[in-house]
Amino acid sequence: MHVFVTGGTGTIGSAVVGELLAHGHTVLALARSDASAQALKDAGAEPLRGEIADLDVLRAGAEQADGVISLAFSRNFGDPDSLAQAIAQESAAMETLGSVLIGTDRPIVTVSGTPWVPGRAATENDPLPTEGPVAGRARSVTALLALASRGVRATAVRMPRTVHNKGTGGFAGLLTEQARRTGIVGYPGDGTQRWPAVHALDAAVLFRLALESAPGGTAWHAVADEGDAVRDIAAVLGRRLGLPVESVPQESFGPFGPIFAMDQPASSTHTREALGWEPVHPSLLEDLENVQP
Fold first, then answer.
1. 54 half-sphere exposure, CB direction, 13 A CA radius
2. DSSP secondary-structure letter at 166?
3. pLDDT in tens, 54-96
4. Beta-carbon-side half-sphere exposure of residue 240 (alpha carbons within 13 Å)
5. Whole-angstrom Cα distance, residue 267 to residue 265?
6. How do residues 206-230 score in pLDDT, each as one tens digit?
7. CATH numbers and ranges of domains, the chain
8. What is d(CA 230, CA 98) in angstroms, rounded to the nearest whole number?
9. Which positions fall inside the NAD-dependent epimerase/dehydratase domain (predicted)?
10. Does the reported pTM lie above 0.90?
């Protein structure tokens, strides 16, 4: 399959590109810079210069592909306004990509987050949240999945709050970055809230499986660790960085504060049983041992 990938040089995307190439697919990937283009070439993919906001470029990439994996998301989301802008940009990109595939029965796999459900681990059948700072992403993913009724094999891989590789990435990575800036490994609340996690290389396998075989209109959970207590994550980071660990106001984390404070475990039982996905790479707490002081 010739696959068009957006976001192909990020933590998840680079793993997805490698996974696709290792299993006989060819890859055309969006590249927003010369450095990204070179990284894609070095990996064995063909770069297509452009950004997520270049809708004509996205349309051209999807038109020449047998399938699409949409991963790109702006990194400029340090405040509520920029986060809303990034979500709107992503929504326009998914709408463009999906429209190209209408009536073709070709697959498109997009990314979203696992939902949170009070009192239990979220499952693949739980709906995405329609309120809150990232509700716009839920609406755009839901709209894409609805294209299954119009001849698009649209699926979504729901990612946990931390996608990690070599000790970096996701919400745990944001804790690390903030700790280095402030000199404190801070966490919101009492730290008993749980965050699910997955190794990027395991997540990449699920994206490939969804692309190859998942039915249209379905959502899958790329969850290896159902939920680690945030204070346990912070404790490992404190030891690795040689910094004190303590609770801090959730406002310290900007627009992500309310999400950081939530208890949000998630299950992947259905995904494993239906698609045969089985994570094999290190857990989050094991991988954080790679964090350097």
1. 13
2. T
3. 999 999 999 999 999 999 876 665 566 777 888 889 999 999 9
4. 24
5. 7
6. 999 999 999 999 999 999 999 999 9
7. 2-162+197-225 (3.40.50.720), 166-196+226-267+283-290 (3.90.25)
8. 37
9. 3-213
10. yes
